[in-house]
Write a structure and sequence with these properties.
Strand content: under 5%
Number of strands: 0
Helix content: 55-70%
Distance between the termini: 18 Å
Structural class: mainly alpha
Radius of gyration: 11 Å
Number of helices: 4
Largest sheet: none
Length: 74
């Protein structure tokens, strides 16, 4: 399970940044993270739209504060 305060299942910040750089792993882990948080709508949006601009925003946010973008809470 994902621990609170860290994305990508509680992995370290450096490992999370490396995984966020690779578009496929960033997309897959972003979808899995949102579904594990019980945010089904956000997970579905990431599933279908997470390969474009959301990837770039996630990459920037992962470097800056260690968390992915959360537009929706449900």
């Amino acid at each position: 399970m994902a621990s609170k305060g860290k994305d990508y299942f509680g992995l370290g910040r450096i490992v999370s940044i490396i995984l966020a750089i690779i578009p496929v792993t960033s997309w897959l882990l972003g979808v899995c993270t949102r579904f594990s948080e019980k945010a089904v709508v956000a997970g579905l949006l990431r599933l279908f739209l997470g390969w474009n601009i959301i990837w770039l925003i996630d990459l920037i946010m992962m470097v800056v504060n260690g968390k992915i973008l959360r537009l929706l809470k449900f």
